[in-house]
Every structure is written in C-alpha cells, then in structure tokens.
Amino acid sequence: AIEIAAFITAATSGKKASPSGADGLVALKLADAALKSATTGKTVRLDK
Questions:
Q1: pLDDT, tens digit, for every residue of 5-22?
Q2: What is the dihedral of CA 26, 31, 32, 37, to 10 degrees?
Q3: DSSP state at residue 44
Q4: Given CB 3.0 to 4.6 Å as the disulfide criterion, which of 21, 44, 45, 47 pairs with 33?
C-alpha cells in the first residue's frame, strides 16, 4: 500500500518516482535472468 501511495504521489505531483522506471526495468531483467538460470541450471549473461 505504501508503494502505491508513493507512486500516485509521484505521478500526480511531478516528482520522480523511487525507484525510477529504469531501475525497475533493471531489477526485472535481473529477476528474469535469475529465474531462467535457476530453471535451466545455466549461467545467464546480461548485456549492459
């Protein structure tokens, strides 16, 4: 609930959200790679 309130405040006030959309995307890519690695047993490389 706190995260949603912070997002709404950022969206309606023009303040930057924390974490940023870019930070969220990086976290999502890391989580997807970790899941793929755990599922396949192989190393998953991420590009910058």
A1: 888 988 899 888 788 889
A2: 130
A3: -
A4: 44
